[in-house]
Design goal:
Number of helices: 3
Strand content: over 45%
Structural class: alpha+beta
Shape: elongated
Number of strands: 8
Distance between the termini: 39 Å
Order of helices and strands: EHEEEEHEEHE
Helix content: 10-25%
């Protein structure tokens, strides 16, 4: 197991440090934006550096959404045969503009998987982070008392 759980507790609330470690070891997640009154969720590759998340984007609805409404959510998770985890970040996103900002973002190690041009660098500054670790197994059924 990645983490020790109290006996008979299949869900463990992770602390901030554990959440950042998991994000740092993961390279993919989902960013949630709201644009034109509609929510959107997009899979992205990400990097972590100095308490911030970084991603690259092409022009499109994801970039437009976070430009108009910078309040975003980001989620990453991992699933193994007998355990799983999920980390959620709420924060503010902005498109990086200066060479110094982009150089710092490159240090995060973000590396898109899809071979398309992604000219824009995005930084997410967290306002909150939370995570859970799960021991997988069958759901206990309630007894029918009727």
């Amino acid at each position: 197991m990645m983490y020790d759980h109290a006996e008979d507790k299949p869900v463990l609330v992770l602390d901030d440090g554990q959440c950042w470690t998991l994000l740092g070891n993961s390279r993919h997640g989902r960013i949630a934006t709201a644009f034109d009154g509609q929510p959107g969720i997009t899979p992205v590759n990400h990097g972590v550096s100095n308490g911030k998340l970084y991603l690259r984007s092409a022009a499109g609805s994801k970039l437009a959404g976070l430009t108009v409404n910078p309040h975003v959510a980001f989620e990453a998770d991992g699933i193994l045969s007998d355990e799983a985890w999920s980390v959620i970040v709420h924060g503010t996103a902005r498109v990086l503009e200066t060479d110094a900002e982009i150089l710092a973002a490159r240090a995060s190690g973000v590396d898109p998987w899809v071979q398309t041009l992604k000219d824009f660098w995005v930084e997410i500054t967290p306002t909150s982070i939370s995570g859970r670790h799960f021991i997988l197994g069958r759901q206990p059924e309630q007894l029918d008392e009727h």
